[in-house]
Amino acid sequence: METKRKGIVLAGGSGTRLWPITIGLSKQLLPVYDKPMVYYPISVLMQAGIREIAIITTTQDAAQFRRMLGDGAQWGIEITWLEQPRPDGLAQAYLIAEAFLDGAPSAMVLGDNIFHGPDLARLTGRAAQKARGASVFARRVSDPERFGVLSYDAEGRPAAIMEKPPIPPSNDAVTGLYFLDGTAPERARAVRPSPRGELEITSLLDTYFADGSLDVLHLDAAHAWMDAGTHASLLDAGNFVRDDIARTGRQVGCLEEIAFEQGWIGLDDLADHAQRHAKTEYGRYLARRLMEAQTDVPLSGGDRAPALGAKVA
To answer: Whole-model pTM above 0.85?
Structure first.
């Protein structure tokens, strides 16, 4: 029997690039237009069909995250809360989440990364179907020195990932979305700290490169990817979300809508969410989405979603 892929949102760290804003508040709780930043990475996992999600936070921020997101049942998902005692690199997440994963493959997304695109669910679904090895997503950027960057061999095939190189070998940055198989925690235990004292995700990914099991999926110009970890990029991300909603009339990173489209909550649940947010444009959007759904799907009594683990027709 195939093991279900689980999700990880890494929402720890100290947020020093956003000081003084984040001295008293986790950056992943900051607003990106009309939603907390953490909604966006959660939405990526939900679009990939992942319902069991571990959110890794710092000890001091854990209570605020729990108050905002609860156990995830309102979206038909199951949230497990894990704490990162200190930020020792992205690969550390697989050590913290090892018991949660329990041998399952995973999809990890960084808590300050925002992804959006017309067929993003298809791309992430493709990565999720890969039983062994790893898949990462790359995007061409103008400032590759800020990221992990792909290098290529003589035949133009991805050969390695260099972490924040002063002279980047290409403009293809590896985004903060990683689909890894069940061996990730074991591989992470073998990673040694880098000169800056961190367990680098690039070192973990290089172990997949070494055995020929890492796939690189390229995001094109139709896909937006933003790292909202600086003041300028946080503002840019908020403006992007606002402009895209105004242009298309559709929400970005709307957990209630995704849960409904996945069949994890029903029409009555969607109505409850719309009522809860009724004083906001976000709530009015959910109400419009409910009206659309009622036009296509006649509302019958007791239309509630099944519990996590139940089959959805």
So the answer is: yes
